Amino acid sequence: MEAAFSSSQCSYEEYKETADWLLAHTEQRPKVAIICGSGLGGLADLLADKTVFPYQDIPRFPTSTVPGHAGQLVFGRLQGRECVCMQGRFHFYEGYNIHTVTYPVRVFFLLGVETLIVTNAAGGLNGSYNLGDIMLIKDHINMPGFAGQNPLCGHNDDRFGLRFSCMSDAYDRELRALAKQTAKEQGCDGFLQEGVYCMLAGPSFETIAECKALQMLGADAVGMSTVPEVVVARHCGLRVLGLSLITNNVVSDYDCVEKANHEEVLRTAQHRTQDLQRLVSHLIAKI
Ligand SMILES: *[C@@H]1O[C@H](CO)[C@@H](O)[C@H](O)[C@H]1NC(C)=O
To answer: How many angstroms separate the alpha carbon of residue 180 from the centre of ligand 1?
Structure first.
């Protein structure tokens, strides 16, 4: 499977083949898609009337390799609303090319999805953030994009979107307002933040000098995902809401003995995951 994705972009017909297969295998027609981040795949378990497709069963779909990522597409209802959840996403650091990382987003578009909700586990760069805070993503810094890894590089297919895609409005203002209102209603507003997410390619965590640099650039949280999917989603006109669970504080002080580790990320995710799930499901009911 990986070999088929290793070199280049996919054609419209390839995405279409995947989408048509899914449409033929479920009667659900979700308008909302959710990409679940590290340790946040539990959201998909809350769906009612589920239809589950392991990635390896879906034609042309890539497969997931990280612990904490189940690797399946789940169709179902959340608060009565049809949605489709990616339980396990594809990361650039796994060795996938940037087009493969974003493959599912164009499939969602061809399924008729109009809104994409992305969640991730991120390191807090902003000194006022606490572990377990939920950050609404207001904007992003596409660091791999700076380095030439933008998923829109290559031939542009107008059936998806324009050659030059606007990103100044990537994170939908209305959806963010709705999320804030929902957080208030759900009693989550005490740990809701709003800030800038910076993506690094990973898989190594940030050095202290890198953290200081990112803080200077205005980033509030840092992670290894989300941005490529959002870029592709905006290109094809999907509305986007992004949520980061702050699962670790990055080390930006040379005297600090703490070290970043993936276990801490998964532990914190587990702790606040219910709140995040509640927020997302109540939010979906309002979209
Ligand atoms: C950190 O977050 C707070 C609260 O959201 C915000 O007011 C502030 O501008 C952010 N940035 C820095 C550098 O503190």
So the answer is: 17
Q: pLDDT tens for residues 19-60?
A: 999 999 999 999 999 998 877 778 888 889 999 999 989 999
Q: Atom 7 (ligand 1): residue with closest C-alpha?
A: 128
Q: Which residues surround ligand 1 with Cβ inside 6 Å?
A: 126-128, 193, 195, 220
- pLDDT tens sequence across 218-276: 999 999 999 999 999 999 999 999 999 998 877 777 777 666 666 666 666 677 888 88
For residue 94, give its domain range. 2-284
Residue-level length of the chain: 287
Q: Chain-wide mean pLDDT for the chain?
A: 89
Q: Which token pair is 15? A: 């995405």
Nearest CA to ligand 1 atom 13: 126
The count of structural domains within the chain is 1
Prior bond of 62 cis (ω within 30°)? no
**CATH number of the domain residue 40 falls in:** 3.40.50.1580
Give the single-character DSSP code of 68. Answer: T
